Amino acid sequence: MAPSFCQEIYVGRLFINRELVRRGLAWHYQEYSDDKRLADDENHARLKKLGLWGGSHKLIAPWE
Length: 64
Hints:
The protein is mainly alpha-helical. The chain is 31% helix and 6% strand.
Protein backbone atom coordinates (compact mmCIF):
# COMPACT_ATOMS: atom_id res chain seq x y z
CA MET A 1 0.00 0.00 0.00
CA ALA A 2 1.29 3.45 -0.92
CA PRO A 3 1.96 5.96 1.85
CA SER A 4 -0.67 8.67 2.17
CA PHE A 5 1.08 12.01 1.92
CA CYS A 6 -1.26 13.87 -0.41
CA GLN A 7 -2.43 17.11 1.15
CA GLU A 8 -5.22 19.46 0.20
CA ILE A 9 -3.84 22.96 -0.39
CA TYR A 10 -6.10 25.98 -0.01
CA VAL A 11 -5.60 29.71 -0.43
CA GLY A 12 -8.59 31.14 1.31
CA ARG A 13 -11.44 29.01 -0.04
CA LEU A 14 -9.69 28.15 -3.33
CA PHE A 15 -8.73 24.44 -3.52
CA ILE A 16 -5.37 24.80 -5.30
CA ASN A 17 -4.92 21.08 -6.06
CA ARG A 18 -8.25 21.01 -7.86
CA GLU A 19 -7.62 24.25 -9.73
CA LEU A 20 -4.31 22.91 -11.08
CA VAL A 21 -5.88 19.62 -12.22
CA ARG A 22 -8.90 21.45 -13.69
CA ARG A 23 -6.61 23.64 -15.81
CA GLY A 24 -4.56 20.65 -16.97
CA LEU A 25 -1.50 21.80 -15.04
CA ALA A 26 -1.25 18.77 -12.76
CA TRP A 27 -2.05 15.06 -12.77
CA HIS A 28 -4.55 13.37 -10.51
CA TYR A 29 -2.51 10.54 -9.01
CA GLN A 30 -5.22 8.02 -8.23
CA GLU A 31 -2.95 5.74 -6.24
CA TYR A 32 -2.72 8.46 -3.58
CA SER A 33 -6.11 10.13 -3.98
CA ASP A 34 -9.58 8.75 -4.49
CA ASP A 35 -11.11 12.23 -4.80
CA LYS A 36 -13.74 11.91 -7.54
CA ARG A 37 -13.69 15.69 -8.11
CA LEU A 38 -10.02 15.53 -9.11
CA ALA A 39 -10.61 12.51 -11.35
CA ASP A 40 -13.51 14.30 -13.06
CA ASP A 41 -11.48 17.49 -13.43
CA GLU A 42 -8.59 15.60 -15.05
CA ASN A 43 -10.96 13.86 -17.45
CA HIS A 44 -12.47 17.24 -18.36
CA ALA A 45 -9.01 18.76 -18.95
CA ARG A 46 -8.05 15.80 -21.14
CA LEU A 47 -11.23 16.09 -23.21
CA LYS A 48 -10.79 19.85 -23.62
CA LYS A 49 -7.05 19.40 -24.32
CA LEU A 50 -6.02 21.84 -21.61
CA GLY A 51 -2.49 22.26 -20.29
CA LEU A 52 -0.60 18.97 -20.27
CA TRP A 53 -3.19 17.44 -22.55
CA GLY A 54 -3.03 20.18 -25.18
CA GLY A 55 -0.02 19.20 -27.24
CA SER A 56 0.81 16.46 -29.68
CA HIS A 57 3.66 15.28 -27.43
CA LYS A 58 3.61 11.88 -25.73
CA LEU A 59 3.10 12.26 -22.00
CA ILE A 60 4.76 10.00 -19.48
CA ALA A 61 3.13 9.99 -16.05
CA PRO A 62 5.59 11.16 -13.37
CA TRP A 63 5.14 7.89 -11.45
CA GLU A 64 6.19 5.76 -14.45
